[in-house]
Amino acid sequence: MTALGGVEMGALAARTRALAVLRVRSRALAVALLPAAAAVILLVGGSTGHLVGEGWDVLRWVVSVLALFVLLAAAGVALVVARAEPAMTPTVTVPEESAPELYRMVRDLADRLDVPAPSAIALTPDCDSWLEDRTHPLHGPPPVDRDDDGLPGLGDPARRRSAVAAPVLVIGSPFLWWMRVGELRAVLAPVVAGTGPSAHPDIAAARRFIRGLDAAVAVASAGRRDPLSRAACAGLGWVSRLLLRSCRRHATEMERGVAAAAAERAQAVDYGLRIVAQEQVGLAYAGWDRLLTRVALPAWRMGRWPSRLDVGVVAALTELSRRDRLAEGFASRLGERPACDLLEEPGVVDEAVSLLAARLFHGGPAETRPDWSPVGWEDYPEEVVDRSWRTDAARLHRVLDTLGVRRTGVGTAPGTDGPTLARVLDHLTTPDPAPALAPPTATDADPAPGTHPATGTTPADTHAPHADHATPHPAYADHDAPADDSDDLAGPVARRGAPDASGDGQAPHGDHAPHPPHGDHAPHPPHGDHAPHPPHGDQAAPHGDHATPPPPRADHHGTPADDEDDDDLAGTTARGAALAAGLSAQLAREEARERPVGAGVPSSPPGPGAGTGPDAALWDDRALPLLPLQPPRTGREILTAHITAMVCCAAMDTVGAAPGLDWLDGPALLLDGARTADLAPSVLSLVETGDPGPLRAWMTELGIRPEKPVRLV
User: Fold this and answer.
1) What is the mean pLDDT of residues 575-604?
2) Which of 571, 563, 552 is nearest to 686 (CA)?
3) What is the spatial distance between Cα 573 and Cα 141, in angstroms, rounded to a whole number?
4) Pick from 264, 267, 313, 271: which is nearest to 290 by CA?
């Protein structure tokens, strides 16, 4: 439906709401000038002989001083709002020389839609696309001609092309690798159409005002030491938040109007294909979330970052197409031209986006270094899966050493003191002593490997040959994700309303093109209602053979609440609880020593000739990770993961099993090239009840010998 002169109704509604936002600004200015106006009246009245007397003189001085103070405060707030740098989304800029075909496609799309073309293209490690204004709000837009009847020519973008700088088109990188060229064009049509109504001066001014208020809140939230600065920041924050609350409803309706106008304009371009392409949007969400939480996260914890995440999305979704009946026929699309062919060097772009994803979701450094290096998918099983299991197994035996548990177990050959699975089984199944062993705490100092925590002695049978091998990063790969056939994909990354994995045709950005200018991509520290929301999709752990307990509630320090942790360990045996507490304490100490540092490290391009790199000048990276993937694990989860890692090490060293990578479930144990049977119930039986029967039966079936020493890192 259109209005006068072919102008979209959504654009008219957006302009109406933009004027409402600007009226809030005008009212704030009027309130700031009111004391000055009163002072002028009193001064003029005194000079003309009308308002005379001692009382009027005192009132004149009081009102004049108040007016001066209010004017200075208002000028300070206005200056901060006008000059504060708005929050920008962390992206990887794609210069035109690095993707001429992509730029050509976007410009052709803009010409068909009769709207201004985006000023640049950038990629984000997320499944969304939007427009983002990256012009610094120091100057307003130049004057714009208006129609005789006073209505703006919203349907005539040609006269607006030079009025307001066109926004940047931000594209989710998984779309480029998974979608075909035609599908990407159809999905981007309503996004690009948003440049039309966005170019209107009233809408642009309203957005600048809101972004300025948001940036002012961020400035006020920054810590100040001296009392005067703290008072000034408190006043600035109060005024900015008050104005934001006054504008909130109008700004929301303005963005809805812009999105509606863009969707209406884009209906004539590839509408039928866009409906089909929305199914691929849902699949991309599901595959991207699975890849991050179950495949990339274990590597990040090991100090390695997968350098081809977008290629992994294609592999994960291809595997989903093979397993899930809802995805039948999607694999045939792979014969068509992928959208990443529009890039000159897709591998270099994928690497830059993968590094940015590691920074945003994990907080890793901005560039490669000895303890933070890339890993290819072909090396992932050996470099990540095998190493993480052996690191967890080594940590498990170090904690057993601190608890004074003897090295030799039942059925172990005489003289064997190496790390064995039998040692773990015997300790957890032996009847609990009285009194029970006291679990170490995170504040205790690290005892020497093999030293009893109470006596400080080192028994001959508790020598730990591998205890000296420290890990560069806390490697505690989760081993408790469900081993299903990928039909539990209802939890993709959903910060902006992700659809479910069935691809029901409802995309989160679909026909709602423009992204809010102050939305949940703001990299400044969270403030008010503008804090970024972390992905809350499938929170399962990376390993594909084990069930995931519910995530723990975290306190304000980001660690599990003590009462819930106690409740989590209440169902285990006393020895299991002590071992879980020791592992949690050891992990806490390792994280404190080896936590990846990304704060304050400037981003840099991946290399010469790449033409890409995180936009370091546009965002504040002092609070990484901006979007953490998972909450801290409970003691039960940590104990289960370490026992599972020890079982996997025993399987690799005694029956020739191998570490593997499942694109949907992450690390997997392979025997004769096939994934092993479900291990979770057997491990949980040992952890919760101290019954090793199911686990021993599982190992006997596969021929695993728990009494044999295993190789650790």
Assistant:
1) 72
2) 571
3) 69
4) 313
Instruction: Yes or no: say if 659 and 651 are a contact pair by the CB < 8 Å rule.
Output: no
CA angle 90, 96, 98 (to 5 degrees): 85
Among 566, 592, 553, smallest CA distance to 439 is for 566
Q: Per the structure block, which two tokens stand in for 543?
A: 């390993």
What pLDDT, on a 0 to 100 scale, did the predictor assign at position 540?
33
Which residues are registered as beta bridge partners of 136? none
- What's the number of CA atoms in the CB half-sphere (13 Å) around residue 127? 37
Overall size of the chain counted in residues:
713
Rounded CA separation 238/249 (Å): 18
Nearest one of 122, 170, 173 to 513, comparing CA atoms: 170
> Rounded to a whole number, what is the distance in angstroms from the first to the last CA of the chain?
67
- Tens digit of each residue's pLDDT (9 = 90 or more) over 66-94: 999 999 999 999 999 988 888 788 899 99
Backbone CA torsion sign across 61, 62, 66, 69: positive
The full 3-state SS of 425-490, as one line of letters, equals HHHHHCCCCCCCCCCCCCCCCCCCCCCCCCCCCCCHHHCCCCCCCCCCCCCCCCCCCCCCCCCCCC
Q: What is the pTM of this model?
A: 0.72
SS3 state of residue 605 = coil
Residue-wise pLDDT for 179-191, tens only, equals 999 999 999 999 9
Packing angle of the helix pair 346-362, 309-323 (nearest 10 deg):
90
Q: Residue 258 to residues 137, 145, 246, 509, 614: CA-CA distances in angstroms? A: 20, 21, 20, 13, 28
Q: Are 93 and 79 in contact (CB under 8 A)?
A: no
Q: How far apart are CA 142 and CA 164, in angstroms?
A: 8
